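Late entry, evening session. Most of the bench is empty. Finally got around to the prediction I had been postponing all week. Sequence below, unchanged from the version circulated by S.P.
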Amino acid sequence: MSDSTPEGPSLAALFLDLGVRRHAAVGLVVGVAVALLAYVYRIVIVDAAPGVESSPLLFGVLAVTLAVSVAALVAIVLTIASAVRRAKRLD
């Protein structure tokens, strides 16, 4: 087996061209903002329902899950939009 590099463009070059790193950063900011708003709304603004115990720690863990999920969704959508724009530009 030889250690030569492949002739075609690399996956790293594609990621750079699509702006995946920037999209991930935007997704992270949006995800944290949405999770923070949801946490503040649930813990600070809305009181717990009568007879239901409300744990700020539990909602903190749920907020982290929400932040990661929203960040991934936003990054994927932005990257797909970049890929579609790039494909149209190549045609």
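Two things to note before I forget:
The chain has a mean pLDDT of 87.
The two ends are 37 Å apart (CA to CA).
Will write this up properly tomorrow.
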